[in-house]
Design goal:
- The radius of gyration is 21 Å and the shape is globular.
- By secondary structure, it is an alpha/beta fold.
- α1 packs antiparallel against α2, α6 runs parallel beside α8 and α10 packs across α11.
- It contains 14 helices and eight strands.
- The longest helix has 20 residues.
- The protein folds into two domains: 49 residues; 250 residues, 2-enoyl-CoA Hydratase, Chain A, domain 1.
- α9 links the parallel β5 and β6.
- Strands 1, 2, 3, 4, 5, 6, 7 and 8 form an eight-stranded mixed sheet that branches.
Amino acid sequence: MHYLEFERPIAELEGKIVELRKLADEDPNLDIDGEVATLQNRAGAMVRETYSRLTPWQKVQVARHPGRPHFLEYAKILFEEFTPLAGDRQFAEDQAIVAGLGRFRGRPCAFIGQERGNDTQSRIKHNFGMAMPEGYRKAVRLFELADRFGLPVLSFIDTSGAFPGVTAEERGQAEAIARSIDAGLSVKAPFIATIIGEGGSGGAIAIAAANRVYMLEHSVYSVISPEGAASILWRSADKAQEAATALKITAQDLIELKLIDAIIREPEGGAHRGPHSTIEAVADQVAKGLAEMDGLTGEQLVRARREKYLAMGRTL
């Protein structure tokens, strides 16, 4: 288990449980059941208390937790007949964005998600979930395919942002993101986006301009990372905690601001402590969202989607 900085007291308790179990393995006559049960209850209570009062910065850390389930883990469980589609038909294949076709609970759909990777090799392969322009052009290709065949689009967002390097800018990063947003807004089929980890900047909204936007309880969604905002406002990334609070990036902030449609509960201690139950909770919420949009025409879906985003920020 990878423990975050604020989880140190929890780590100490759970470490003691591991030590006791090792002692019991070495000496079968040692009775530790009572003490282990006591420590487990204390650890569980501590986890509940800690995660019930997370600060925005702590939620950022949880959203970035390396053990949190990533898109490909969702895809393996949620989709049958998983068929990825590669390339943007213009320049190259971008591994940061995985897109394709499949069946969700028996229903044909198009899917798209950002994949960060789970180890050094896969993180390099997927560029840490930071897409190049060709990744967003692949997304446009998928949106157009879904529009043509009336397939619901399910997107899963988990990125710190689009790749900011010179090569990406040379190939038209901003233009590719803008076209992806436009294509998402124009799909004449149900479109559901779920923030499963970190939703950063245009790199996230490029595949999240949906009819329904859901967030996991401890995920974050923002126009810029806390470190980036701190560097701009205070000329120091050390102010990231203050920036995280000011940005209103948590699911709880965004549901209050009416920028998202629902919060999906995570297991006690975060999605990394219960990946399978987290994925099932996401599946249930997505199925509910699709059911809500059944019977709506393509024109109605597009109109509702555009009105949803035009209404954001209005005070009257």
